[in-house]
Amino acid sequence: MLIISIYIMDKPSKSSRMLLMARVISLFRMAVRTKYCTSRIKSYVIPLLNYSVDTQSSQGGIPVSFFELLGLLGSLKGITSDAVASPCVLKLLEAGEVVKFEKGAEEVSQFAAHFISDTDQLQTCNFANFFPLSEGTPLQRAEWIKFLGAFANLETKANQVYDAVKASYNCLSQMAAKRRTSFKPIVAWMEYDKNGGVWCFTKEPHKLKFVEDAGGENIDKSINKITYNVSDPDDLEALHAILCTVDAVIDETISSYPQNYTQKTFLDNISLEDNSCFAFNQSIWRYDKRVRQGTTLDWHDGAISQPNLVLADMIEALFPTGNYTTSYFRNIAKGEGVIDISPDMCDRDASLPFVPTIPACG
Ligand SMILES: *[C@@H]1O[C@H](CO)[C@@H](O)[C@H](O)[C@H]1NC(C)=O
Ligand SMILES: *[C@@H]1O[C@H](CO)[C@@H](O)[C@H](O)[C@H]1NC(C)=O
Ligand SMILES: *[C@@H]1O[C@H](CO)[C@@H](O)[C@H](O)[C@H]1NC(C)=O
Ligand SMILES: *[C@@H]1O[C@H](CO)[C@@H](O)[C@H](O)[C@H]1NC(C)=O
Ligand SMILES: *[C@@H]1O[C@H](CO)[C@@H](O)[C@H](O)[C@H]1NC(C)=O
Ligand SMILES: *[C@@H]1O[C@H](CO)[C@@H](O)[C@H](O)[C@H]1NC(C)=O
């Protein structure tokens, strides 16, 4: 029997909206027997027999790791770019079980659903919008697994995975809060724009939340508003003054070759020859540790579905034990390099659900 679902395609902006949609899907599941497609409502035959993912617009978040956690890689049939940070998808691609296709309407129409996060494109009826980045907290982003699970009648599995990730996240965050020391390291997420020659500090809420939940403190809000032009001596002086208050830096600067992005790159771009007098001199982090072919970062995929690992990384960054191997963060102040993701790193049966990684806590 065909089961048909309906889903409102307005851009959802909050978790509650996403959950509402998932509920709409369940409600209509029994009621509707014809496939439906208007500008506001779409229907999909579920469970999906197959689907494809737009893997090109990584800045919006890629759902591949979510599908791995649900055990749905077996029905992933197409991707629009081979720049994917999942070893198992790369392996399926090599084996020809997943194909790379051009984004044309005709090519997309061969899949029961096509998942996109970049909505500035012409959409046909089988497009499904995946928007984790519209959420304000790391856990709300991870909760999008419930939305994806609904396409495969896997709501229960999705809830289980989410609950495990959430419990891990909350345990780590409580552990950080219970720390005996009252020292709260000050953290700056910062990014250099090569073209404008300016530095700015991040104000994205979920990033600031990671710092708070790890037991750190974000730099003052008034600092976030401004960009600092390194060619302007006053700006540069102000930038250095701010950095004097900072205990850890997370350098988000986009690099076309993360392998070569070192502490020297950072220091050059803040116009410092050495940082020995700065408190952050042992703690300059980037989130590009897991990278595929130079530029595709797992940060835009796996780090969204498992924010507990990012939090564990952040805690290690702020309160180093030397005992924990980070997943996404690398410390360029200690010369840590990147891990180049390749198909041979897939060491499991890709058709089975990937068990979420739960770092030690307590
Ligand atoms: C995907 O599934 C649909 C049925 O929903 C089928 O018609 C189509 O041929 C399948 N496409 C691929 C590429 O497997
Ligand atoms: C930064 O300053 C330089 C030199 O004054 C100027 O050419 C450049 O346009 C400035 N950048 C921005 C983004 O204002
Ligand atoms: C990266 O660094 C290596 C060694 O310094 C150099 O040979 C190579 O050209 C650099 N690559 C890029 C893309 O900058
Ligand atoms: C930023 O760092 C890179 C690599 O060291 C360097 O090529 C570039 O000139 C630097 N930019 C500035 C404005 O210092
Ligand atoms: C790092 O900075 C501190 C001052 O904040 C200084 O005491 C220490 O020697 C510096 N360490 C290195 C390796 O530069
Ligand atoms: C390192 O890990 C071990 C085992 O997980 C633990 O017993 C030990 O206390 C840890 N050391 C530090 C410094 O956290």
Automatic annotation (TrEMBL):
It comes from the Eukaryota. SUPFAM superfamilies: Helical backbone' metal receptor (SSF53807). PANTHER family: F12P19.7, OS03G0120000 PROTEIN. This is Uncharacterized protein LOC108814914 isoform X3. It comes from Raphanus sativus.
